[in-house]
Every structure is written in C-alpha cells, then in structure tokens.
What we know:
single chain; 5 helices; transmembrane; transmembrane helix
Amino acid sequence: MEIxxxxxxxxxxxxxxxxxxxxxxxxxxxxxATCWFAAFIGASFPVALKQRAPSLRxxxxxxxxxxxxxxxxxxxxxLWWERQAQRSPNFPGLGAVIFLGVAAIISCGLSFVLGWxxxxxxxxxxxxxx
Length: 130
C-alpha cells in the first residue's frame, strides 16, 4: 500500500515538471517516465539477486533506486536540453531523441551499479545482531 501511495504522488508530480524549450508539453512527462522505466529495468537484476524478492525491502529498494536514478537521468537531459536550445536555433532535432536514449541508458546503468552497492537483506540482518 505504501508503494501505491508513492506512485500516486509521483504521477501527480508530472504537473510541476519543467517544460523543455521548443518541445511539446508532454515531452517532459514522457522523458521522465522513460528515465524511470530504464532505471527500474537496470535495478531489477541486482536487487532481485541481493534482496528477498517478495519482501517489502525488495520493493522499497527497487522503487527508490528507480526514482533517484531516473530523476538524475532526467535532470541531465533537461540541463543538456536547455544548453542546446540556447546555442542552436535548429534544436530540437534528432539529437534530442538520441540524448533521451542516452539519459535512459545513464539511468539504467546508474541504478544497476547502485543496486549492487545496497547491502542484501541477510547482510543488513546480520549487522543488527552484532
């Protein structure tokens, strides 16, 4: 139930996303959702191996890694977009779509690496009993 609450807050936050210059209004929501989905995919493998799959800890780690790493990818995309829009009168072109893919790959890779750095559920349990 906690995860559904967080997901509801996230979906409601799409209203306050910054608008990308010279892009359709929906591009910010599409790009953030793309980065979050890529981060979810990237974190799925290491989190599934290190956490107990049906546990609440599994879902929390997967959710927060997806949100944090996806937001980092979105922020990098937004900063690059603003810089390119100021510099080039022809922007956006194919480069915008390509960099959306790069931002998704960055989100995926970052969540994959951070997923390995989160201690497993059994390691966290052992540390509490020392």
